[in-house]
Amino acid sequence: MKQSPYRREKKALNAEMNVVPYIDVMLVLLVIFMVTAPMLITGVDVDLPKEQTNTMSQSQLPVIVSLTDSGEIFISYENNIDLPISEPELIDTLSNLQNQSSNAGAQPLQVMINADQNNQYGAIMTLMATLQQAGIEKVGLLTGAPLPTPTL
């Protein structure tokens, strides 16, 4: 007797796991994490560790160069407080102070920049280039204490 064309043949069962749906799920999760990760990084409150830093010796106070938002330069060193100065005079003064400290065998001259927060970035970089022309190797930037954040 001839077999019917509508009869099903029995095939062996496929016991292998289909991983395509798992790969699809993993790709969707990867996209979700890639989108949300940058949002998680910003605005995180971090409790920074408190450390004791080395203080400068009182015999060598740093030179403070102040830059106002109008571009005026002032210098404070030793007993001279907030003297108005031009860039060429600043280079000469810092070179002389650098030579005095190296002749005395002291540490290199430390200069701190006290700039107004409204200054242009280019003005501060110009001042730092001027300090470099004077041979200053250690330059720091002064900041104020942050305002306390209001608690809700």
From TrEMBL:
Signal sequence extent: none
Membrane-spanning segments: 21-41
Domain of life: Bacteria
Compartment list: Cell membrane
Membrane topology of this protein: Single-pass membrane protein; Single-pass type II membrane protein
Tagged with keyword Cell cycle: yes
Keywords in alphabetical order: Cell cycle, Cell division, Cell inner membrane, Cell membrane, Membrane, Protein transport, Transmembrane, Transmembrane helix, Transport
Sequence similarity: Belongs to the ExbD/TolR family.
NCBIfam families for this protein: tolR (TIGR02801)
Protein name per its UniProtKB record: Protein TolR
Origin organism lineage: Bacteria, Pseudomonadati, Pseudomonadota, Gammaproteobacteria, Moraxellales
Underlying gene: tolR
